[in-house]
Amino acid sequence: MSRRRTLGTKKKLALLVSAATVAGGGAFVMASTSNAAQTPKSSAESTVCLGLATALGNNQKFIADQRADPDAQSEARIANREAVVAEIQRKQEASGCVVGESAQDSQPAQPSQPAQSAPPAGAAEPSQPAANPGGGAAPSGQQVCNGSTVTLSGEGGAPAASSNQFPAGTKLKVTNLDNNKSTTVEVTSVSGSCVLLNDAAFEQVREPGKFLIRRAVIEKVG
Q: Which residues form the signal peptide (predicted)?
């Protein structure tokens, strides 16, 4: 009887040790998974991070341009944009992105056009749309900034936009083709991109959780 009790006790101890080992292993796996989930994402891994990186790059470019060619208002503009940069970096951290990652707003490559044969002699040339290299000279109602993505400037206040092509007072209509939402805003300041929406304007057209509009139509309406 005594021997049976001894063996029973040993078995119980062995079972307890095994259970502790399994529990410890599970805790280790959970901790490893948690640490992996907390690894900051790059702009290549997340649309949210790409949008914030683009916004940060646009604001940093604006600051660099102001420092390279300053005027009487440059210091005030730079101070304002530095505060915006800090706010974007805060959003990067809150969204699990790499803090400080910056990407300039890029134009997508245009598809190459097939070569066209010369028209027959005497045939009229097809009419071509008028060029608009400056952007700001576009007539009201014309689509502008073709191919541009749209992100936020990070500035607060009532819905508005900033631009490096259109002067203050210009009205632009921005349509997000992914959800068919539009907003018409007035340009109130200068930026490093064709058009940046401030936080309030961006909220009117954004998709939930995204900080970048890849498919946008931008029209000058006033």
A: 1-36
